[in-house]
């Protein structure tokens, strides 16, 4: 039975808010206490993604990311009429989560905003590739041929963890426009905010094209 849209949107609002609470919340805790380290913050993002997939995936798909929703739509796996409502729900959840994180943050905190460590071009390239690889992994492991329950959540969360661990110091490893826009706007740290929208969207679409190429079958005559 198809899940009602209102149930899906509630799951996306809740899921994205929880992503911000534990993901960017970990960044704020590290900012204040230095108790987690960069590896701990990366682990927090990976673990919360696993929890969200296993708890909300059967309701809304646990996209919690406009780039993922865009990718699923472009791949023909998600109805176009639900794209904008999903994105709106994800943004609402991200802002709600960031507002709660702000309650524990000190004055001047970035609230876990993603900022380029060096130049914008480098950060754009990194975000493009990280989102490309994340979306490609998602498309591959959620196909009917490969999907194997818990292994799907483990693979996707491990990908987020790995990418946050390696790419985080350079670009913030956002891979998610909602995750970047909410803390940037609430904290006022808007440096190159556009790239955290454009690069993930482009990366997700590139993953869709690559996934189709990987699925090409040779002709009988070949």
TrEMBL record:
Keywords: Membrane, Transmembrane, Transmembrane helix, Transport. PROSITE patterns: MIP. One of its GO terms (molecular function) is channel activity. The chain crosses the membrane at residues 9-29, 35-53, 83-105, 120-139, 151-173, 193-214. GO terms for cellular component: membrane. It is a multi-pass membrane protein. Pfam families: MIP (PF00230). Its main location: membrane. It is found in: Membrane. Belongs to the MIP/aquaporin (TC 1.A.8) family. This is Aquaporin. It comes from Hymenobacter aquaticus.
